[in-house]
Fold each of these.
Amino acid sequence: MAFNLEDYEPVASRLDRFLKAHPDARVITDLVHYMADIAVFKCELWLNDEVIATGWAEEIRGQGNVNKSSHVENAETSSLGRALANAGLSGSDFTKRPSREEMAKVVRYEGDMKITGTSNAPSEKQLWKYKSELKKAGLLPPLNIATMSKFEVSKAIEALVNGEVPAEPVEQEEPF
């Protein structure tokens, strides 16, 4: 691994510094998406009556040990870390903008890659749900189903549940 987790500041330390500097600040988190074991959070940092920064994060249930039981909490903390970094609280070294928690996610992802060969493949449960929703809509599974990522399958399930025809697969963005 090309980095040391100890070089990255935890979200709790950043939050402590922020709240000490701005005791009247507000931190608002919102679970904006939860489907097929994927949680997406948005965090807003407010000073007075103005949003000064936002942060977004997603976590997938079961991806690494922490996410076996706490993927929702982990996503919320990561969104807070992103918002704090966007507000300029990225630790003493500006090149270490991601929080320790975000870099731990990279470690989890790398670990999954070594164990399974791919951490981006949809689970059997997710594929079953996708095929079930396709069948309800009178559609056949796409030819590329074997190469679809968790993200792509999740978006396709969401579209089907909302009565939409699934879009072409979408590339997943880098975490930062």
Amino acid sequence: MVLYVLYGGDELAARRRLAELRTAADGGSGMLDANLTSLDAQAATTEAILGAAMAVPFLAKRRLVIIEGLLDRFAGARGRGGGTDDGDAIDLPPSGGRGRGLDALRPLLDLLERNELPPTTDLIFTGKVVGSRNALLDRLRRMPGTSIEEFAPPQRDDLLRFIRTEGTARGIHWRPGPSRREIDTGDEWRRPSASDPVALLAERFQSDTLALTSELDKLALFTMGRDVTVDEVDLICSGERETTVFHFMDALMDGDLRTAFRFLERFRLEGASSQGLLTMMTTSYRRLALVADLLEQGATPEAIGQGIGLPWPRLRDAAIARARRHGPEGIRTAYREIVDADRRIKLGEVDEDLAIDSLALELATLAPTPRPQHSRR
């Protein structure tokens, strides 16, 4: 039996370590699914944990048992029950008596201390941020042979280094410099003050490594090899806006003009510029053009997903469907409309908001939502 304790605020690092342990437990047998038990500490019982840990592996050398969030049930307590008021999870009595929570786990802890679990079992306890007082962690530290691994969230220079490293892995190129986005004089306060896009990301998401990697995925998808500036970070990674950017473009490409205009109104309330919106549209139709080219070459859906950075089947297939509905000529028409709107805005021939609204109308009509097919009688 091997006991691992994984905890800390760097949830991404903890997940990656857990993936390593899963691979090691499989050992190339391909039978991990049949020998893996993952239990949530909020719902599991001590008997369920023991039952899983005592089972012998099936057609494999090892069995892996993961108890997620178990340490969190004891956060803020020393020698007492869990640090929450609903201490019924994992048979924990309500906290309030010294040692009561650990008493609920005594059958399991006694077996661990005597090393009486099967040698073929790998047992993993996880938790997030564990404070200086934690009854279960204190007990586990005294057990010989226990591997306790803390994943502290990156801070300061380590955080900036983390963002740059993860960005490089996604093909992101950073370009420092002040914001150059067009903003009305009265809305100057909306302009990001940072001149380093990496620092701006760190400022907005702090040490939340899972959120940061999600934002980096979106930046890589949006820029497609272009340099990332503070303006891209401000547009894509500003709270809830990053999701509306993609929903807006999906609505345009699906001919859902009502939804598209709803998002346009929201962007304007948040201070988005016409140039930022045009960049968003150009990038999205550039990706659509790439999908159309790959379709003409006879590429498989998997190859297309890899080519556009969308390996997820749902998103990949949606992009393929949009490219087919538009066709090469429809995509070229969209480009011409975007370029023409940009030219007219820069020459001052038309009001910016009117130009963007007209452009959205033109783009939405290029590929209306497919009508449902009715069966023939």
